[in-house]
Amino acid sequence: MKWESFEKIMLTYKQALQDMHALHEIGLNLSDGKYDIMSHFYVLFNETMGIEYNSNGVDWIDWYIFETDWQQKKEYDAYNDKKELVAQDLRGLWELLESGYLNSQLPAVPTDL
Q1: Total domain count for the chain?
Q2: What number is the average pLDDT over the span 69-94?
Q3: Cα separation of 63 and 70, whole Å?
Protein backbone atom coordinates (compact mmCIF):
# COMPACT_ATOMS: atom_id res chain seq x y z
CA MET A 1 0.00 0.00 0.00
CA LYS A 2 1.30 3.46 -0.77
CA TRP A 3 2.28 5.62 2.20
CA GLU A 4 -0.29 8.27 1.31
CA SER A 5 -3.12 5.73 1.32
CA PHE A 6 -1.96 4.11 4.54
CA GLU A 7 -1.64 7.48 6.28
CA LYS A 8 -5.07 8.62 5.06
CA ILE A 9 -6.76 5.41 6.21
CA MET A 10 -5.05 5.50 9.60
CA LEU A 11 -5.77 9.18 10.25
CA THR A 12 -9.38 8.82 9.09
CA TYR A 13 -9.85 5.87 11.43
CA LYS A 14 -8.27 7.86 14.26
CA GLN A 15 -10.70 10.71 13.62
CA ALA A 16 -13.64 8.28 13.54
CA LEU A 17 -12.60 6.88 16.92
CA GLN A 18 -12.26 10.39 18.35
CA ASP A 19 -15.66 11.39 16.97
CA MET A 20 -17.29 8.30 18.43
CA HIS A 21 -15.70 9.07 21.81
CA ALA A 22 -16.92 12.69 21.66
CA LEU A 23 -20.45 11.54 20.85
CA HIS A 24 -20.32 9.08 23.74
CA GLU A 25 -19.23 11.90 26.07
CA ILE A 26 -22.44 13.82 25.28
CA GLY A 27 -24.61 10.75 25.76
CA LEU A 28 -24.90 9.35 22.24
CA ASN A 29 -23.55 5.81 22.33
CA LEU A 30 -23.01 4.42 18.85
CA SER A 31 -20.92 1.47 19.96
CA ASP A 32 -23.59 -0.51 21.73
CA GLY A 33 -27.13 -1.72 21.22
CA LYS A 34 -29.21 -1.32 18.07
CA TYR A 35 -26.87 1.19 16.41
CA ASP A 36 -23.47 -0.38 16.98
CA ILE A 37 -21.74 1.64 14.28
CA MET A 38 -18.33 1.43 15.92
CA SER A 39 -18.23 -2.32 15.41
CA HIS A 40 -18.91 -1.76 11.71
CA PHE A 41 -16.02 0.74 11.52
CA TYR A 42 -13.78 -1.75 13.29
CA VAL A 43 -14.65 -4.62 10.93
CA LEU A 44 -14.23 -2.49 7.81
CA PHE A 45 -10.89 -1.14 9.00
CA ASN A 46 -9.47 -4.50 10.08
CA GLU A 47 -10.66 -6.32 6.97
CA THR A 48 -9.19 -3.65 4.72
CA MET A 49 -5.86 -3.69 6.50
CA GLY A 50 -5.96 -7.50 6.74
CA ILE A 51 -6.23 -7.82 2.97
CA GLU A 52 -3.05 -5.82 2.60
CA TYR A 53 -1.09 -6.93 5.66
CA ASN A 54 -2.68 -10.17 6.97
CA SER A 55 -3.57 -10.84 10.60
CA ASN A 56 -0.01 -10.28 11.84
CA GLY A 57 0.02 -6.85 10.25
CA VAL A 58 -3.38 -6.05 11.77
CA ASP A 59 -1.97 -7.06 15.17
CA TRP A 60 0.83 -4.53 14.67
CA ILE A 61 -1.65 -1.85 13.67
CA ASP A 62 -3.79 -2.61 16.74
CA TRP A 63 -0.65 -2.43 18.89
CA TYR A 64 0.11 0.99 17.46
CA ILE A 65 -3.43 2.28 17.99
CA PHE A 66 -4.30 0.82 21.36
CA GLU A 67 -1.01 0.13 23.13
CA THR A 68 0.68 3.38 22.16
CA ASP A 69 -2.58 5.39 22.13
CA TRP A 70 -1.60 6.82 18.74
CA GLN A 71 1.86 7.67 20.10
CA GLN A 72 0.48 9.53 23.11
CA LYS A 73 2.21 7.22 25.59
CA LYS A 74 5.80 8.06 26.34
CA GLU A 75 7.27 4.73 25.24
CA TYR A 76 6.05 3.33 21.98
CA ASP A 77 9.15 2.00 20.29
CA ALA A 78 8.83 -1.53 18.93
CA TYR A 79 11.74 -3.93 18.71
CA ASN A 80 12.18 -7.24 16.98
CA ASP A 81 13.56 -10.37 18.65
CA LYS A 82 17.11 -9.14 17.91
CA LYS A 83 16.39 -5.98 19.95
CA GLU A 84 16.51 -3.87 16.78
CA LEU A 85 14.12 -0.91 16.56
CA VAL A 86 11.46 -1.71 13.97
CA ALA A 87 8.79 0.95 14.51
CA GLN A 88 8.73 4.24 16.33
CA ASP A 89 5.95 6.24 14.67
CA LEU A 90 3.23 5.91 12.04
CA ARG A 91 5.69 6.09 9.18
CA GLY A 92 7.88 3.48 10.89
CA LEU A 93 4.86 1.22 11.31
CA TRP A 94 4.09 1.51 7.61
CA GLU A 95 7.72 0.81 6.73
CA LEU A 96 7.63 -2.28 8.94
CA LEU A 97 4.46 -3.53 7.32
CA GLU A 98 5.89 -2.90 3.86
CA SER A 99 9.28 -4.45 4.65
CA GLY A 100 10.47 -8.00 4.34
CA TYR A 101 8.47 -8.82 7.47
CA LEU A 102 5.34 -9.28 5.40
CA ASN A 103 3.05 -12.23 5.98
CA SER A 104 4.05 -14.66 8.71
CA GLN A 105 7.56 -13.21 8.90
CA LEU A 106 6.42 -10.17 10.89
CA PRO A 107 8.07 -10.07 14.30
CA ALA A 108 5.85 -10.75 17.25
CA VAL A 109 3.90 -7.76 18.48
CA PRO A 110 5.46 -6.35 21.66
CA THR A 111 3.74 -7.54 24.80
CA ASP A 112 5.10 -4.79 26.99
CA LEU A 113 6.34 -1.29 26.35
Answers
A1: 1
A2: 73
A3: 9
